[in-house]
Design brief:
By secondary structure, this protein is mainly beta. Helices cover 14% and strands 44% of the residues.
Length: 216
């Protein structure tokens, strides 16, 4: 009789035993809840990218975006166009054809206007004229050397002449690629320092009556 009672007791204990006694019982409060709610982000209007003064071409654009499942993906578009680093690059979904047409027409009118050299500084033996990325130097003096220096970025030109004129400092108007012209005298030559608004290479060409510096 005792054996029968022990057997029945063990049988009922096995029926009510948990599958794994080493883990606690999960209640409704213990089970983590998931949510389909997503963070509400504002619609893209326009983003602006400003490039450094060393930039000359834009090779490609890569967009990193998030999919519905939360995964991150990338889309690369090859462009390979020349750019003006002074102007920002815009990213926008607000495409307005009429605004774009007006902008293109306005730019065409600007480009169609003939831009002339403007005199920005002069002495009795040298004069400086600016047009966009070109600096015309009119002088009869022979150029001895020319080179580029940084911090600030500037072009240095030495001209042969014995003179004692002291110094000349001329700041150019805002928006010019050439920001300042400085002239100082040395024994047997005078030095012209042309400060720039960013990083450039340049070429110097000989013309009748002087020289032309072109920023690249």
């Amino acid at each position: 009789m005792i054996r029968v009672l022990l057997f029945l007791s063990l049988f009922f204990l096995m029926l009510h035993a948990r599958e794994n006694p080493f883990f606690p019982v999960q209640s409704g409060e213990d089970i983590p809840l998931t949510s389909n709610q997503t963070t509400k982000l504002p619609m893209l209007k326009r983003a602006t990218v400003t490039l450094p003064s060393t930039a000359r071409t834009i090779e490609s654009v890569t967009v990193t975006y998030k999919n519905l499942d939360g995964s991150i993906a990338h889309k690369k578009v090859t462009i390979q166009n020349a750019i003006d680093w002074h102007l920002p690059i815009f990213i926008s979904q607000n495409y307005n054809e009429s605004d774009t047409t007006q902008f293109i027409e306005k730019q065409s009118k600007k480009s169609s206007k003939k831009i002339k050299y403007k005199k920005v500084a002069s002495l009795k033996f040298i004069a400086f004229y600016v047009k966009k990325n070109k600096l015309k130097i009119l002088t009869k003096d022979k150029i001895l050397r020319n080179f580029l220096l940084v911090k600030p970025h500037r072009i240095v030109c030495d001209f042969k002449r014995d003179t004692d004129i002291g110094s000349l400092i001329k700041s150019l108007k805002e928006g010019s690629l050439f920001t300042k012209i400085r002239l100082g005298t040395h024994k047997g030559y005078y030095r012209v320092v042309i400060e720039l608004d960013g990083y450039y290479s340049y070429k110097l060409d000989y013309i009748r009556g002087g020289y032309i510096i072109t920023l690249l």
